[in-house]
What does this fold into?
Amino acid sequence: MIEILYPYALTFLSAVLFTIYSLLLEKNVRIPETVEKKGKRIKWINIVISLTHSSLSSVSVLICFYMDPNLASDIINNFSYESYTAASFSLGYFIHDFIHVIRHQKLKTAWEILLHHVVVIICFGVAVTSYKYIGYVIVALLCEINSIFLHIRQLMNMVGFSNQCILYRINSLVNITTYILFRICTLTWMTRWIILHRSFLLLPVWLCGVGGMTSMTIINIVLFARLLLKDYSFHRPIAQNFDANRMAKLK
It folds into this structure.
């Protein structure tokens, strides 16, 4: 009985803790004036919570790989309580964030994140409740290393950092680098693994994995294109400099 309830208890505890954390931030934290004026208090808090999860899950994933360097050698049956706890912790967060987004955001502006969370919750849920594919979940959580810098970028934009600011540029460079290493490379490896190991997986699990990887790949390609366009497009600064020079000549 305890073994049956264990995954649900861990996940539920994680979701409750993130909900309490959210409520504490909403009532007690002071956010930047610029964010308050834009009416984006809830969004700011949501990103801070996401940054907290990314930081904690990244550390836990690195610990899992340190304690078991061969974790990815058998991602179907490889099991440890450290990796299982990390998977359950993240599943609880995604359930919390899914509910939080539904409560505070409009569907037309949040459908991408909701789709992402549905895919993650289904895939992580299968792993946590079946005690299998935990290694696959831990590999997937490597993406959270990049999420740290994605969330920092969001917070910088909300405060009003210029995209030419040195701190913004450093974070942008690290963001793009970790995006390639921990998102694109990780998703490529996971997709390849699913294709090569079709015979080892039950058809429903395989279909779930293929559907999840397809949707995640599309979402991440779109996001990567947006990042490149917004952070590495030089048309806007050139136009601004041209207008400034022209106005100076007119004076």
The radius of gyration is 20 Å.
